[in-house]
Amino acid sequence: MMSTTEIEEPIEEDENEMDPQPPRLSHKQSFDIEAAISSRVDESGQKETCEERSTLSKLYRAALDDDWQTAETIFDSHEDYVKASLSKLGETALHVAASAGRIDFVKNLLGYSPQVLKLTDYFGQTALSLAAASGNLDLVQLMTEDNEHLALDRESVDQYLPIHAGAMSGHKEVVLYLYSITEGQLDNKDLIELLIILIKTDLYEVALRLFKDHPQLATLRDSNEETALHALAGKSMMSSYLANQNQQGMLQNFFSSANVGSTKLSLSHTVLEQAITLVEIIWKEVIRSQDSEISTLIERPFQLTFVAAEKGNIEFLRVLIREYPYIISKHDDMGRTMFHIAVLNHQVKILELINEMGSMKDRIVSRRDYGGNNILHMAGMQPSNEGPNVVFGAVLQLQQEVLWFKKVSEIVRPVDAEARNYGLQTPRELFTQSHRSLIEDGQKWMRETADSCMVVATLVATVVFAAAFTIPGGNKGDTGVPIFIEEASFIAFAISDAVGLVFSATSILTFLSIRSSVYSEEDFLWRVPGSLASGLASLFMSIAAMMVVFCATSFTIFHGRLPWLPVLVTVISSIPVLLFIRQYHRFFANTLGVLQLSSFV
After folding, report:
1. Does the residue 531 lie in any domain?
2. Is the separation of the CB atoms in 317 and 280 below 8 Å?
3. What is the DSSP letter of 324?
4. Is residue 15 in some structural domain?
5. Which of 165, 75, 168, 147 is nearest to 113 (CA)?
6. CA–CA separation, 294 vs 283, rounded Å?
7. Which of 345, 532, 535, 534 is nearest to 443 (CA)?
8. Do residues 398 and 439 lie in contact, with contact meaning Cβ atoms separated by under 8 Å?
9. Other beta carbons less than 10 A from residue 505's beta carbon
10. 401 and 505 housed in the same domain
11. Separation CA 245–CA 169 (nearest Å)
12. For residues 57 and 74, what is the distance between their CA atoms, to the nearest angstrom?
């Protein structure tokens, strides 16, 4: 394969840069073109002149801006510039245009000099690889129209092909096209690399087609010694939407699930079905092997069932267990099974899977690790890392911990709920010990929040109390009756002032109660979220009422004189209410969600 004309001087590597292949710059990003032009050296070893540098810079811009006329003029004067590397990455004009998706420029350049298709940059990438990575199908088809063999060209067997570049960027149509013109020509090494890339980029439809064409890929490993099952184990068998919801917490999932659109769910279901189907057909191929071979496959380079359990990939585990029940007995070096690991990491759907085990359920829930811990002990431990169901704040996190412990306790036998581990601790005692610091953090946060909110509630109470004795417009001198007593705005003033005073006083009393109380872990399931929700709701109502008092006063005084002024005041006074909602809406969502879920425990 031809390489780019050596016009640049070698690039000096920074001794602190250990990665031999730094990421390639994207031409879609804005950057200094002059900085991308490297120092060039002519055949005599002399550095390029200012004129040559200016010409190269102009050529770079022309390729980037789809300006073929300028580029053709340069090529007519400097034929070697067709193959010249224009940047420190060794990119030629074709590389630059292909990365930027300039199809007209590429078409003209190929007509001018077809040989440039074989040129590579300093990383051994052809322009076809860059076009595939950019997802420009028309450009890929143009380059391979009369040169299908280019889809298999590379400088060494360790480099990825254009089809791999397209798959890594998630471009389905590009991958399907390149697969159609390379079908039957890819070796097993390329095929397994492609299959794993397709799995990691969620291109399950293409992965299904590839595996059905090449079922031998079930047991092959890539350069990292991973099989397709290892790649699938690390995936979440759910849509990106549901995954995002799961990261917000199981409580918020329940609370917001009603807002999911039917169209998005149908698309998610299709992707989920494709992923599960891929697991099924690969696993059926794997279990044709001997038991020893199956064990070796799933345990090297890491135990894939434990990764799936840790990440909550329950659909993946369900398929494996259904076809090969023996897999549930696999344990790690601490004696923990996939169920121990899933419960430790708060994977909610593992409870459904355990309930589906039938007669094996009692064996699963009573199984102990080398420390004598059953799965309820696992639920009593605090995860070392923040799993997908951990929400913000010590209070809400502890709230979920208590709820999770109660949910797991529902599926264990009474004897297991009171069983002691080798440290002589029951699950409840282990829960209290492992969450002691979290309880202290929660109590501290509660007191600090109560103090802050009491200050605000006291200020609101002071304002609305004083407003009751400062009648807008004044009183009639002979009777003391307010002058604007018959105005609707004055009635709104009186009512909102009373509402503000009542709710601010309620908020003060609620937060005072929170401030002076001592809570156990059980209180964080009902009492704490209930008190916080009540106090914050009262504070919100008092602030809103205070704003209404202010607006009503403006309407009372200025109505009929400056009609635009009360409207402006109303708009401005709504800002504090909106800020309050913005600050606490996530807290309310999680709190209401846990209160609703707690009613089922």
Report:
1. yes
2. no
3. -
4. no
5. 75
6. 10
7. 532
8. yes
9. 18
10. no
11. 24
12. 11
User: Can you tell me the distance from the alpha carbon of 423 to that of 426, in angstroms, rounded to the nearest whole number?
Assistant: 9
Closest Cα partner for 48 from 35, 62, 38, 58?
38
DSSP letter (8 states) at residue 517: -
Residue 198 has, within 13 A of its CA and on its CB side, a CA count of 29
Rounded mean pLDDT, 297-302: 91
Q: Are residues 451 and 424 in the same domain?
A: no
**Tokens read off for 1:** 């394969």
User: For the CA atoms of the chain, what is the radius of gyration?
Assistant: 34
Q: Is the dihedral of CA 287, 290, 291, 297 positive or negative?
A: negative
Token readout for 496 is: 């909102």
Query: Alpha-carbon distance 125 to 129, whole Å?
Result: 6
What is the spatial distance between Cα 520 and Cα 428, in angstroms, rounded to a whole number? 13
Rounded to whole angstroms, the Cα distance separating 132 from 181 reads 14
Sign (positive/negative) of CA torsion 283, 284, 286, 287? positive
Q: 3-class SS at 383?
A: coil
The per-residue pLDDT for range 561-584, each reduced to its tens digit, is 777 777 787 788 778 778 877 777
Give the C-alpha separation, 244 to 230, whole Å: 22
Q: Give the 3-state DSSP-derived string for 460-487, with helices as H, strands as E and coil as C.
A: HHHHHHHHHCCCCCCECCCCCCECCCCC
* CA–CA separation, 249 and 536 (whole Å): 22
Of all residues in the chain, the percent with pLDDT exceeding 70 is 79
For residue 420, the enclosing domain spans 240-437
The answer to whether the beta carbons of residues 317 and 338 sit under 8 Å apart is yes
Short-list 292, 279, 281, CA closest to 326: 292
Cβ proximity of 552 and 495 under 8 Å: no
Q: Single out the residue in 415, 437, 459 at which a domain terminates.
A: 437
Neighbours of 325 (CB within 10 A): 11
Question: Do the Cβ atoms of 389 and 431 come closer than 8 Å?
Answer: no
Residues 415 and 450 in one domain: no
Q: Which two tokens stand for residue 371?
A: 């420390």
Q: Do 423 and 510 lie in a common domain?
A: no
Rounded-to-integer distance, Cα 107 and Cα 334, Å = 62
Task: Say if residues 98 and 130 touch (Cβ distance below 8 Å).
Answer: yes
Specify the number of domains making up the chain. Answer: 3
Planar angle of CA 449, 454, 457, nearest 5 degrees: 125
Helix (H) or strand (E) holding 506: helix 488-516
Six token digits for residue 535:
């106090």
What's the average model confidence in pLDDT over 387-405? 71
Q: In sequence order, what are the residues at sequence separation of 6 or more whose Cβ sits closer than 8 angstroms to the Cβ of residue 359?
A: none
> Tokens standing for 285?
């191929």
Among residues 382, 417, 437, the one where a domain terminates is 437
Give residue-wise pLDDT tens across range 202-215: 999 999 999 999 99
pTM of the model: 0.72
Residue 437 CB-density burial (10 A; 0-12 exposed, 13-18 middle, 19+ buried):
exposed
The CATH code of the domain that includes 472 is: 1.20.140
